[in-house]
């Protein structure tokens, strides 16, 4: 049974994945979007969104649904499944799921990130009803209210400062007696009259009726328990990318500290033909608007990549007879040979395709070219001969069949 083959496979149906699907379909690509659970991803746990441009107010769920409907409008194919892994087999990219394997010309990783949870009683029940993991998203809903921030790193300390623009008071709760944040961030926070630190303390439960009303605290040194009335609690004890399916960190794709995916501005990862978009990237701001922007860029980069691959394959496999010189565009000696080869082919009427091996690692792997520069002879799409060539003389000899 032959494996299913698709042009673009997108993993994840949050704002990044759905935007990538919209842009991919509009560019004419065959798009398969692999989703798990509700469309929209993290925005589903955001009760209200007021910073998506053009929409003054929306619930996260409504925005997530509108994204999906937009992708459906352009006839994106959706599949509900669990991705188990990604494998590179003979230069081909294979997505392994619990519903079979799919070979993809290009893949966009858009699985997002998850907030590290406190795990205390009431946290899940009040998420979106006073429990938040994003100050930029939700701070404005706590105008003149008393709130708490849980955490001791840079994000917690900086977000506590941001919250003071809205809240009347911000308690900064940390389980240790010193914050882990940078000294400057700590000094700035502690100098703010609206911020009151509570050291050596953990949150045992979050309580209230329909909305958060108070926190039950415990001092880890004395064991003393206390009650803290607040209208909201912002939890910043960490965020982690959802990338378990990639296996051991760095084994397939280059990842930074914390296992975030490293990309360039084109959303290209360290693996040719695999792109990443949204919250799983190593980036300074994780918002719906930045995820959507990433998705658009990733889709257009994937489109360019797929188009180039198809063009190269047509150059190699469609002609009756063609020679192809594979050389690297970042090696000066290779570029010199390429220029000489191009002139030789033009002077002698030789059908010679010049392929950049640096940009097209997949085809180099597929052809099994161990050393470069290399020349390959194709007849009716089949490889006849191949050889490493270090000079124009060697290339001429190969072409003349000597």
Please give a structural write-up.
- Helix content is 27%, strand content 29%.
- It is α/β, with parallel strands linked by helices and 402 residues long.
- It has three domains: 4-112 and 239-312, FAD/NAD(P)-binding domain, CATH 3.50.50; 131-235, FAD/NAD(P)-binding domain; 319-399, Glutaredoxin.
- Strands 1, 2, 3, 4, 5, 6 and 17 form a seven-stranded mixed beta sheet that branches. It has a five-stranded parallel beta sheet with strand order 8-15-9-10-11, covered by helices on one side.
- Strand 10, helix 5 (183-190) and strand 11 form a beta-alpha-beta unit.
- The protein is elongated.
- The mean pLDDT is 93.
Question: How is the secondary structure organized here?
Answer:
Blueprint: E1 4-11, H1 15-26, E2 31-35, H2 60-73, E3 77-80, E4 83-89, E5 92-97, E6 100-109, E7 113-115, E8 131-132, H3 135-138, E9 146-150, H4 154-163, E10 169-173, H5 183-190, E11 195-198, E12 201-208, E13 212-219, E14 225-229, E15 232-235, E16 239-241, E17 274-276, H6 288-317, E18 321-327, H7 332-348, E19 352-356, H8 361-367, E20 374-379, E21 382-388, H9 392-399
Parallel strand pairs: 1-2, 1-6, 2-3, 6-17, 8-15, 9-10, 9-15, 10-11, 18-19
Antiparallel strand pairs: 4-5, 5-6, 7-16, 12-13, 13-14, 18-20, 20-21
Helix pairs in contact: 1-2, 1-6, 4-5
């Amino acid at each position: 049974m032959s494996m299913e083959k698709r042009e673009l496979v997108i993993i994840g149906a949050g704002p990044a994945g759905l935007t990538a699907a919209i842009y991919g379909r509009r560019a004419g690509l065959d798009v398969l979007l692999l989703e798990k659970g509700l469309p929209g991803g993290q925005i589903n746990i955001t009760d209200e969104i007021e910073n998506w441009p053009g929409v003054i107010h929306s619930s996260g769920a409504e925005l997530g649904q509108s994204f999906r409907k937009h992708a459906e409008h352009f006839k994106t194919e959706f599949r509900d499944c669990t991705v188990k892994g990604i494998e590179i087999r003979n230069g081909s990219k294979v997505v392994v799921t619990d519903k079979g394997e799919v070979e993809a010309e290009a893949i966009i990783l858009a699985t997002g990130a998850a907030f590290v949870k406190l795990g205390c009683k009431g946290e899940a029940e009040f998420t979106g009803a006073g429990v938040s993991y994003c100050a930029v998203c939700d701070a404005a809903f706590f105008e003149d209210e008393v709130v708490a921030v849980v955490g001791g790193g840079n994000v917690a300390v900086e977000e506590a400062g941001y919250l003071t623009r809205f809240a009347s008071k911000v308690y900064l709760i940390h389980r240790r007696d010193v914050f882990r944040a940078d000294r400057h961030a700590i000094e700035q926070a502690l100098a703010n009259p609206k911020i009151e630190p509570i050291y050596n303390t953990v949150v045992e439960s979050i309580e209230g009726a329909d909305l958060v009303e108070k926190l039950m605290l415990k001092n880890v040194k004395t064991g003393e328990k206390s009650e803290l009335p607040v209208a909201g609690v912002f939890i910043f004890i960490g965020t982690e990318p959802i990338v378990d399916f990639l296996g051991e960190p760095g084994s397939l794709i280059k990842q930074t500290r914390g296992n975030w995916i490293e990309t360039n501005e084109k959303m290209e990862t360290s693996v040719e033909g695999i792109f990443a978009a949204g919250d799983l990237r190593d980036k300074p701001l994780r918002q719906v608007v930045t995820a959507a922007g990433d998705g658009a860029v990733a889709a257009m980069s994937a489109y360019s990549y797929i188009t180039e691959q198809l063009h190269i394959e047509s150059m190699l496999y469609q002609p009756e007879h063609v020679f192809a010189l594979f050389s690297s565009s970042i090696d000066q000696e290779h570029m010199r040979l390429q220029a000489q080869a191009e002139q030789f082919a033009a002077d002698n009427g030789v059908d010679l395709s010049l392929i950049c091996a640096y940009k097209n690692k997949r085809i180099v792997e597929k052809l099994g070219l161990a050393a470069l520069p290399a020349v390959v002879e194709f007849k009716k799409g089949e490889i006849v001969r191949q050889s490493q060539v270090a000079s124009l003389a060697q290339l001429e000899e190969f072409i003349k069949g000597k």
